[in-house]
Specification:
Length: 210
């Protein structure tokens, strides 16, 4: 069974916990409780709510093109499993800057992960035109989290702010993109890149998807 199918099945129970929303439902902004109902898997969710199928990927900072930021530690450099995005102004000048969802999807985790990681947000994205169909973006060291688990999000929605993992580093965003969703968070560094993609390369190759 493909790994994403195993992950989908494991989320059937998790997705039964619905969040109430005071916002009125619109075509572009529906309440979480109306789209993530009891016993609905991720496959059901995206099938029944096609407005959340990823139609393209943008950068998570300086949207949509990472304007004002640079990749301080690219994928694979020093066995890094993601990209580290810093403001060109350096130091902690980007502390509190907005972080945006790189594509439509659904929040599968939004919580504090302890020293080294700080606040972490995980989003699953789906598009049947892409090779793996399901992808996961991970945003780490966040200063604040502005979304909840099980919340559907649109591309470009602010999901949090750039942090420094409780002062462990200068402020920056650690971004990972995986084509094997639901893996353990891990340590952010490894010589084994199975399940991990080059975030910048992936985004540039998938700016617009039919």
């Amino acid at each position: 069974m493909p790994e994403h199918c195993i992950f989908i099945l494991s989320l059937v129970v998790m997705l039964s916990a619905c969040h109430e929303s005071s916002k009125s439902e619109t075509k572009e902004n529906v309440s979480t409780s109306s789209v993530v109902e009891k016993n609905h898997s991720l496959e059901d969710f995206f099938t029944q709510n096609p407005i959340f199928v990823a139609d393209g990927f943008d950068f998570p900072i300086g949207k949509p093109n990472a304007n004002g930021y640079y990749n301080a530690q690219p994928f694979k450099e020093n066995n890094h499993l993601g990209d580290d995005w810093n403001a060109v102004t350096g130091g902690n000048s980007d502390l509190g800057d907005p972080i945006y969802s790189i594509a439509h999807g659904i929040i599968t985790q939004a919580k504090y992960e302890g020293a080294g990681w700080g606040n972490v947000i995980r989003i699953v994205h789906y598009n049947p035109q892409l090779k793996a169909k399901y992808y996961e973006s991970i945003y780490a060291h966040c200063d604040t989290i502005m979304v909840q688990q099980n919340q559907p999000v649109k591309k470009g929605l602010q999901i949090g702010t750039i942090g420094n993992a409780d002062g462990a580093y200068y402020a920056h965003l650690h971004l990972e993109i995986r084509d094997s969703v639901g893996m353990p968070l891990g340590g952010g560094y490894s010589s084994n890149t199975t399940g991990f993609l080059d975030p910048t390369k992936f985004i540039k190759s998938n700016r617009k998807i039919q």
